[in-house]
Amino acid sequence: MLKGDRCVIKIRASVALLAALAAVLLAAFACGEGGEEPSTSPTEVATPMPSPTPGFAFEGPIGIDLTTFGAFFDQGEPIRLAMTVAVRDPMTLYYRTSQRYDLAVTNSEGQEVWRWSRDRTFAQVTEEVPLGANGMLSFTETWDQQDNDGQQVPLGNYRMVAESSHCDANYENCSQLTTSATIQIRAPQGGP
């Protein structure tokens, strides 16, 4: 086995381990909530992360990740989403409102079909959220595969986009940090 092959295997194992850890944390979160809707308030996770973190799209000292827990979903199947914002070094994230993130879905033509924040209101308060070295804010949501008008989206490929709503220290340049993942909605597998 070549040295490069061993590195690829180690990286894949590390990514799989991180994905499994995220799934366990989300399952524990869901169990602790008693089946209620996911909280829209951030949860700081104290677990240190390696730097740079595999899967995270880092823009300088801040990284973002979006997990969809699969790439193929049966039509009508709820799609769980987990978004995490991570920092390498201690820093403060600044917010102009109580909104911490946004999620959107676009179809294969690039048209937005769903936005999490649509028709939601957010408190108009500024807030500073300090994070320690390798700190994270994690958020979970579920998309029911319905568009902004409440209709089931058709079969096809969709791009899930996550963005952090944090701003710079002057409360400007907000929502600049984004990441995305592509999924496919297909006809239900198997018969009744």
The largest sheet, given as strand count, sense and whether it forms a barrel, is: 5 strands, antiparallel
Calculate the terminal CA-CA distance, rounded to whole Å.
Answer: 47 Å
- Shape assignment: globular
SSE topology string = HEEEEEEEEEEEE
Please, how many domains? Answer: 1
For this structure, the CATH topology is Immunoglobulin-like
Task: Round the Cα radius of gyration to an integer and report it.
Answer: 18 Å
Unreliable spans: 4-18, 23-54
CATH first level: which class?
Mainly Beta
Q: What percent of the residues sit in helical stretches (DSSP H or I)?
A: 10-25%
Summed over residues and divided by their number, the pLDDT gives a mean of: 79
Proportion of strand residues = 35-45%
Report strand order across the widest sheet: 1-10-5-3-2
CATH superfamily: Intracellular proteinase inhibitor BsuPI
Question: Helical segment tally?
Answer: 1
Write down how many β-strands occur, each being a DSSP E stretch of 2 or more residues.
12
The CATH architecture is Sandwich
Folded structure, characterized:
The chain has 192 residues and is α+β, with helices and mostly antiparallel strands. It has one domain (37-186): Sandwich (Immunoglobulin-like). Helices cover 16% and strands 36% of the residues. The protein is built from 1 helix and 12 strands. A hairpin with a 5-residue loop joins strand 7 (101-106) and strand 8. The longest helix is centred in the first third of the chain and has 30 residues, at 3-32. Mean pLDDT is 79; it is low at 4-18 and 23-54.
